[in-house]
Amino acid sequence: MQIRSTTAEDRDVFVDTMFTAFARFPDPAAQTWSALEMDRGLLAVTGDGRPVGTAAAYSFELTLPGEVVVPAAGVTAVGVLPTHRRRGALSAMMRHQLAEFRERGEILSVLLASEALIYRRFGYGPATYSRNLTVRRHQAAFAVTPAVTGSIELLRRADCGDILETLYDRYRRTRPGALSRPHHWWTSGAGQPPISHAQRHIAVHRDADGVPDGYASYSLTEPGTLTVDEVIAVDDEVSTALAGFLLGHDLITEVVFQRCPSDDPLRWQLEDFRAVEVGGDTDWLWVRLLDIPRALTARGWFTDGELVLDVDDPALGEHGRYLLTVRNGEADCVPTDREPDLSLDVSDLGSIYLGGTAPGTLVRAGRIRAHHPEASSLADALFRAERPPHCLHWF
């Protein structure tokens, strides 16, 4: 078995192998694979050169706590043909890929896990979470009538791509856990709505000066159900205005808001708390640190303190102990031989990195070992973010 990098000439065989691994066929009308970066792809090939596995990465930016934006490799298209599974191809590709990320100088990588049991083995941990909110329209009265400070314009997806791209880019720079959506994704329709060019109604909110400051992408998915792909807004007031518009739609019985963050205030804004049904609660973005000192010093911090982290990285055969020191919102992280406060796997460090998973939760779960009673609460205070991280982007 050999792992080799791909070039532009490998696109067709890569796509065919990838879809075959997932027992699917490429849809000529879809553009989901048009954003593949073939200089970041890998093929697992047999001795006679036959491709049996794929892995790839996108070049994204990830917003960290403190509104810090860093490059992030987005792992995708990982699959092995059913005829060649359990032979080490997946492990070989993943380790080869991690080495390439480091050669590029990238400090972290991210993915969406199709199966949760696979990716912890390679150092990834769930770091953001998502859920759907289903609102029964006849119970959807607001406890306090939202203030009207702007206007809403109804457009078609085909007529407002530039507005969507601009607003999403403005939003993602302020939300920890959010990924960039490169321009060529929007132009080629490489993704799920509203990136894709599938027909959607778009409600664009404009401020008092007529400048767009939020949007909602939605469609009628079945009789009586209005499904909202996403709501993007610069602040809670705009988000509330868009929610009110959607909940006021005629001839529907429920509105399903997809992929909502854990701090979405909608349930608390309605008179009837039980008008909202929470479902689809799941992990979303998984994070893997590749350079621990650089990653920890890159993000913003909101509490001063010191913490010694003893980190095990079985996937790369590494083990390190680091002194994390935070003063006035900035961190220093250096190797140390001091006694550890916490011992943890690199996958669990990925889970707590963005502030969406409290270290204390993983201590209670037995995943992180706290070496003294104060270590857990100190870690909780240090690793918190200004708001829960959230990722909308599918890749």
TrEMBL record:
<dbReference type="Pfam" id="PF13530">
    <property type="entry name" value="SCP2_2"/>
</dbReference>
<feature type="binding site">
    <location>
        <begin position="78"/>
        <end position="80"/>
    </location>
    <ligand>
        <name>acetyl-CoA</name>
    </ligand>
</feature>
<keyword id="KW-0012">Acyltransferase</keyword>
<comment type="subunit">
    <text>Homohexamer; trimer of dimers.</text>
</comment>
<dbReference type="Pfam" id="PF17668">
    <property type="entry name" value="Acetyltransf_17"/>
</dbReference>
<dbReference type="GO" id="GO:0034069">
    <property type="term" value="F:aminoglycoside N-acetyltransferase activity"/>
</dbReference>
<feature type="active site" description="Proton acceptor; via carboxylate">
    <location>
        <position position="395"/>
    </location>
</feature>
<dbReference type="Pfam" id="PF13527">
    <property type="entry name" value="Acetyltransf_9"/>
</dbReference>
<dbReference type="InterPro" id="IPR025559">
    <property type="entry name" value="Eis_dom"/>
</dbReference>
<protein>
    <submittedName>
        <fullName>Acetyltransferase</fullName>
    </submittedName>
</protein>
<feature type="binding site">
    <location>
        <begin position="114"/>
        <end position="115"/>
    </location>
    <ligand>
        <name>acetyl-CoA</name>
    </ligand>
</feature>
<feature type="active site" description="Proton donor">
    <location>
        <position position="119"/>
    </location>
</feature>
<dbReference type="GO" id="GO:0030649">
    <property type="term" value="P:aminoglycoside antibiotic catabolic process"/>
</dbReference>
<feature type="domain" description="N-acetyltransferase">
    <location>
        <begin position="1"/>
        <end position="151"/>
    </location>
</feature>
<dbReference type="InterPro" id="IPR041380">
    <property type="entry name" value="Acetyltransf_17"/>
</dbReference>
<dbReference type="InterPro" id="IPR000182">
    <property type="entry name" value="GNAT_dom"/>
</dbReference>
<comment type="similarity">
    <text>Belongs to the acetyltransferase Eis family.</text>
</comment>
<keyword id="KW-0808">Transferase</keyword>
<feature type="binding site">
    <location>
        <begin position="86"/>
        <end position="91"/>
    </location>
    <ligand>
        <name>acetyl-CoA</name>
    </ligand>
</feature>
<dbReference type="InterPro" id="IPR016181">
    <property type="entry name" value="Acyl_CoA_acyltransferase"/>
</dbReference>
<dbReference type="InterPro" id="IPR051554">
    <property type="entry name" value="Acetyltransferase_Eis"/>
</dbReference>
<dbReference type="InterPro" id="IPR022902">
    <property type="entry name" value="NAcTrfase_Eis"/>
</dbReference>
<dbReference type="InterPro" id="IPR036527">
    <property type="entry name" value="SCP2_sterol-bd_dom_sf"/>
</dbReference>
